[in-house]
Inverse folding.
């Protein structure tokens, strides 16, 4: 079936994948707006992959006609850059920055989750939640129960707590206490508690971890 429009995801200015194809602009724009709404509600976005900065953009591509205008966008330094496609049939009619939820390791299940799964599964239970950073780990304590989550590095764990804090304030969720920095004594106490809970001390002491996708 012929189509006149595509919604395309770009990563670092390079086409990553075609998300949808449509015949009419109305349907294209409706889907595009819904995806941008999802992007605006991302809690903890991807910023680095394999140690390299990563940024995403979502675009509407339109089949070329004589009336298509050249498209210019601003880069991170505010410079105007002409957008070109390695495609003779389509041109970009709209392009917007796009956020994608970062994933991290749920130690309990040994599977990756994102922040929305984290909030739904671990922060929706009744009671005060203590959410602490320990190296590249996040620890969630509810009464005598402890859950552990592993991030790529210290910086990502820091960023997660910052982004989570903004989300909790935005949603008026007041049953969570976030702790980013511990004194040496409290850090040792947390290590000891987690080891008694079955978490390996050598794993807890690591500062970065790479997990396969």
């Amino acid at each position: 079936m012929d189509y006149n429009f595509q919604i395309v995801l770009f990563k670092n200015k390079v086409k990553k994948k075609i998300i949808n194809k449509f015949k009419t602009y109305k349907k294209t724009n409706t889907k595009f707006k819904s995806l941008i709404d999802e992007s605006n509600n991302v809690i903890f976005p991807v910023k680095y992959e394999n140690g390299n900065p990563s940024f995403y953009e979502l675009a509407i591509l339109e089949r070329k006609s004589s009336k298509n205008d050249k498209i210019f966008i601003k880069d991170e330094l505010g410079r105007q850059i002409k957008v070109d496609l390695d495609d003779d049939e389509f041109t970009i009619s709209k392009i917007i920055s796009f956020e994608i939820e970062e994933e991290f390791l749920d130690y309990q299940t040994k599977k990756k989750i994102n922040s929305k799964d984290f909030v739904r599964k671990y922060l929706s239970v009744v009671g005060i939640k203590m959410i602490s950073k320990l190296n590249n780990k996040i620890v969630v304590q509810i009464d005598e129960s402890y859950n552990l989550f592993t991030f790529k590095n210290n910086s990502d764990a820091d960023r997660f707590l910052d982004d989570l804090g903004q989300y909790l304030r935005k949603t008026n969720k007041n049953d969570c206490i976030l702790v980013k920095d511990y004194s040496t004594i409290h850090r040792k106490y947390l290590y000891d508690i987690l080891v008694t809970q079955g978490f390996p001390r050598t794993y807890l002491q690591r500062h970065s971890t790479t997990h396969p996708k």
About this structure: The chain has two domains: 5-98, 103-204. Residues 5-98 form one domain.
